[in-house]
Amino acid sequence: MVRVAAVIPHWNRRDLLSAALESIAQQKRPFDEVVVVDNGSTDDSEAVARQARARFLPLGRNLGFAAAVNHGIRNTQADWIAILNNDVTLEPFWLARILQAADFPGNHFASGKILSTNDSSILDGAFDEISRGACAWRCGSGKPDSPVWNTSRTIRIAPLTAALFRRNLFDEAGLLDESFESYLEDVDFGLRCALLGRHGVYVPLAVAYHRGSATLGAWNSDTVRLISRNQVLLAAKHYSGQPRFPILAGQLLWGFVALRHYKGWAYCKGKLAGWRAARSLTADKKEHPLLREILEQSEQTIFELQQQTGFDLYWRTYFCLSRR
Fold it and tell me: What is the rounded CA–CA span in Å between residue 140 and residue 217?
């Protein structure tokens, strides 16, 4: 029998964890194992997890999202692993539907439709894509739910907000890169899978709800710093041999977005930290023969979805500059 484990990286906010675990308990196809990996919470999160009969694995301090996920993966031997944010709740048929679609020859992972907890008519996201400018888009984020998002499709990158993975994919592609700490580690992992020829499926009938930035808050300085840094790490790891102009345009435009939210200093600190960390990643790197094709296809998907649902200012400007 196929076994499925849920891995929940967690840090404080016992109220969020309680709601997540309650929705997990209500699944029509039950999880075989639930693992909460704790990044040094100072509230009574442990009691909440144990009351829900979840395994509680304390790390003692905040090592970041990627490290917590990896620790959870190492501590389960389930055939499939669902990675779930602690501020996610699942509809009762989420696991049944996403597992049915994912457990099909050729599929290695799956993501479902993720709606905003605050307004269920708005998407939090569906799947991820990455541009030649090394900026990712959580496809559908902030867009009204519409028929565009109701069609199943093959995907390259599953957001680790709520997604399901074959256990052996982590043996093949490796675990999450812990140098990312938090943010864009899922894009890095998705790119590694794509370069191996591994893909997944988007399952719109598998619905989850995400509060989004519930622990740190929207446009928190630490969030902006980490994303800014990790964009540089992403480019350093994967973008050898790629055209420079899209990268420069994408990164500078993202800086203007950060500046509009009064986070220009956090953006600058992140870029500086990224450049320092990237020095060890750039030596003797060669372009992967599939990379250019993957980035072109991924960026084309962003363009087409933006065209169908209305261009965000960032992407409109980026595509004008890149003459797509």
Answer: 20
